[in-house]
Amino acid sequence: MKRLLLFALPIWLICGCVSQERVNVRNGLLITRERRSDFIKEWGLPTRTYSQSGHAEGFGVAWVGDKQKPGGNFALRSNRSYDLWYYAERKVTLVFDREILVAWAWGDEPQLLGPESK
User: Fold this and answer.
1) Residues 38-64, buried b or exposed e (16+ Cβ, 10 A)?
2) 47 phi and psi, to 5 degrees?
3) What is the model's pTM?
4) Which comes out higher in pLDDT, residue 64 or 52?
5) Could you give the strand order of the β-sheet that contains 81-87, starting from the edge strand earlier in sequence?
6) Which domain covers residue 86, as residue numbers?
7) Which run of H or of E encompasses 26?
8) Distance between start and end Cα atoms, the chain
9) Alpha carbon 68 to chain centroid, angstroms
10) Total domain count for the chain?
């Protein structure tokens, strides 16, 4: 019985952690560092996708959104491509650095990365 508990407990803990991330996505609670696969599993494929490159020297700052409806800022790495996913039914644009969520902007239209601010 003790061995079964020691074997089952880590598996139960790991499954619990994974499901919490998906619950956050399911409920629309966006947190940086969420995996792209969690959005596909919970929200399905995005309505539109874009890819943009960073043009900063070393690190810079980029923003998502426009001047009327600003989104948020995040660290922009040079020579790195970012994937932007727009979900029309949820009215949100997600910005991924490889497989990880780094920023998002709410709005009726897809948002693109704006010019770097200094």
Assistant:
1) bbeebbeebeeebeeebeeeeebebbb
2) -65, -45
3) 0.70
4) 52
5) 48-53, 81-87, 92-97, 100-106
6) 2-106
7) helix 2-26
8) 61
9) 22
10) 1
